[in-house]
Amino acid sequence: MSVTVSHSPFTATVLGLPRIGPNRELKRATESYWAGRVDAAQLHHVARDLRLAQLADLRDAGLDSVPVGTFSYYDQMLDTAVLFGALPPRVAGIADPLDRYFAAARGTDTVAPLEMTKWFDTNYHYLVPELDAATEFGLHPEKLLAELAEAIELGVPARPVVIGPLTFLKLAKSAGGAALHRLPELLPLYLDLLAQLANAGAQWVQIDEPVLVTDLTEAEIDRVRDTYTALSAAQDRPAILVASYFGHTDAALAALADTAIEGVALDFTAGTDVAAVAAVPALSRKLLVAGVVDGRNIWRTDLDTALGTLGSLLGSAGSVAVSSSCSLLHVPYSLTPETGLDERLRSWLAFGAEKVAEIRVLATALTDGTDAAAAELTAARAAAESRRDDPRLHNPRVRARLAELDDTSLTRLPADQRRAMQREHLDLPVLPTTTIGSYPQTSAIRLARAALRKGEIDEAEYVRRMRAEIADVIALQEKLGLDVLVHGEPERNDMVQYFAELLDGFAATENGWVQSYGTRCVRPPILFGDVSRPEPMTLSWIGYAQSLTTKPVKGMLTGPVTILAWSFVRDDQPLGDSARQVALAIRDETVDLEAQGTRVIQVDEPALRELLPLRAAEQPAYLRWSVDSFRLATAGVADTTQVHTHLCYSEFGEVISAIAGLDADVTSIEAARSHMEVLDDLNAAGFALGVGPGVYDIHSPRVPSVAEITTALSAALKAVPAERLWVNPDCGLKTRGPVEVEASLRNLVTAAAALR
Ligand code: GLN
Ligand code: ZN
């Protein structure tokens, strides 16, 4: 092997960068482009300015290797599909490359977009490349080469980043089953790309292989070895860094280290430890990029612990660089705008910019000794101490209440007995109809929220307007003849943020945006302390709605797992402990709702599957605590009170038996797109509770016909007896228009009535 471009090891880096812009500039520019308000040149200009400013910041912050090419107009997997000429044929006719790209991402009037799914166990969503026999790969490296050139011109020590062939193929959807057999077609293109990057002046290339942290078969591990043996045998290439993140690499690490690659990046915040590195002697000849600064959470790093880890690694690796554990895509840009946080809490946090500074400090301390970073180490210790001692992290009342609970707090009477009691209590027809919770978020609702925020209206006026919305939604449901009504959730713009703002133990940021997908950004709350409910959160809204009708109105709550999944969580106690605290607060709300006369309570857990650990060995423990936290949240009510839950995905896989474990009286689930197959899966798992498989897909503006809904219900009745079957759409209606919602629900009620 000969590497024609000289390279030397580096000491401080991050694995990837956010791209939405510190003030979501890219989001605004992209959406303006879609709306036709700016042209492609203007969009490219905004993007380039953002990249150059970011590169200059990182260079000035003292990183001696800077990732380039992690910028994206939408998504890095989509970029990889473009890089290898693997866009689906249905967009091929769109001549303009940018419009073709966005068509693949979002669809057009005539073209369906690529599917979108979660990036490993994060809240980022990527576009799933589609491969079939007709896919002919080809190399299109223009974007990456241009970003490399602009970084080099700026004097930045640039390290181009590409997604690796194993990850690209394993995550792609392939018509003929697994796509890994297509490695031989892709490898020559990777080799060509490596040569072009070397010629363009790259000393290092980073090849991302996060699939290395998932369970791989022996045969797949052989592919890892073969692939990187082949790539590292190239004559003309940069030094190769293979990056893994979000977990530990297990047996794949030794296979990788057997090859002639020059470096590996490992995630020391998610399972990798010093012993795993020491166990692989071949690493003593490689650069180890040690992800000791958590790239996914917002806590300040314990620098002493990180230094301990780094010091130990020095003995096992050829050289050690300090890094974030993964791309900084998953955390907000900077703490600077967060002037609203109390000083104490703020001192415990590190967003993107602060993490880069920590990495620099650690690298300095590692090479020059701790004296060289004495001030920063002292400050980090003081912050850690202040966090440890803060009374908000140790609420004795919450802890005492949890300690008192036992298994009886998680159980209700057997489900069939409850069903009989509830039938009497609620007096519902067979095939009862209901909806999932939200109704269209009209512009009146959005305007009222904005006016309240700006101080143009007071709280009383806001409440008046929200009540008017609730009254409309109740009247609509009465008119349509639905059986179990909802209040429509006008007061919530987000089902997690709403509760986080009302619970103690959570803090909200002003500008802590992270990309969820494309131009969609979220601002996750920060769960920093012990959680409790200072006062009721939903009672007045639900009580008002119930006062307008004699039909039962569902109390609507978000479950503990979903609240955790969409927040930045504490790292000083197990996630399961935080879940129990949130569950207790939700339980308090259910008990109060019941006391106020609410007869049906729904606790949504759309994220139950999202938090499922990547490794099969870790899944049973997760499923135990997540199911228990749901039961803790819901088992405090009388057996006559009907508990519903809503789950938002149709491929249940590993969580199917957990759904029965939730013991909710009624589970509404997405099924419209999976044609009711989910019911057979539930039956096979022994599920015998009420179930409302979504009878139409709310993700599309189409109004389903009565015949279509009848067909779906008839299919459902083959799998589920009528006394357990509910009739509902497959998710909340907040993104739909009022006209189509009314028409769709009218058909739904008509179909249910005819079948009865
Ligand atoms: N109750 C919520 C709604 O209807 C559920 C949303 C969800 O499933 N993500 O909007
Ligand atoms: Zn849903």
TrEMBL record:
Lineage, opening ranks: Bacteria, Bacillati, Actinomycetota, Actinomycetes, Mycobacteriales
EC number: 2.1.1.14
Chain sites annotated for binding 5-methyltetrahydropteroyltri-L-glutamate: 24-27, 118, 520-521, 566, 610
Species of the source: Nocardia rhizosphaerae
Function of the molecule: Catalyzes the transfer of a methyl group from 5-methyltetrahydrofolate to homocysteine resulting in methionine formation.
Cofactor comment: Binds 1 zinc ion per subunit.
Listed NCBIfam families: met_syn_B12ind (TIGR01371), PRK05222.1 (NF003556)
Binding locations of L-homocysteine: 436-438, 489, 604
Binding, L-methionine: 436-438, 489, 604
Any one Gene Ontology molecular-function term assigned to this protein's record: 5-methyltetrahydropteroyltriglutamate-homocysteine S-methyltransferase activity
Catalytic activity: 5-methyltetrahydropteroyltri-L-glutamate + L-homocysteine = tetrahydropteroyltri-L-glutamate + L-methionine
Domain Cobalamin-independent methionine synthase MetE C-terminal/archaeal: 431-753
Active site: 699
Enzyme type, top EC level: transferase
Alphabetic keyword roster: Amino-acid biosynthesis, Metal-binding, Methionine biosynthesis, Methyltransferase, Repeat, Transferase, Zinc
Domain Cobalamin-independent methionine synthase MetE N-terminal: 12-314
Pathway: Amino-acid biosynthesis; L-methionine biosynthesis via de novo pathway; L-methionine from L-homocysteine (MetE route): step 1/1
Family affiliation: Belongs to the vitamin-B12 independent methionine synthase family.
Name of the protein described by the UniProt record: 5-methyltetrahydropteroyltriglutamate--homocysteine methyltransferase
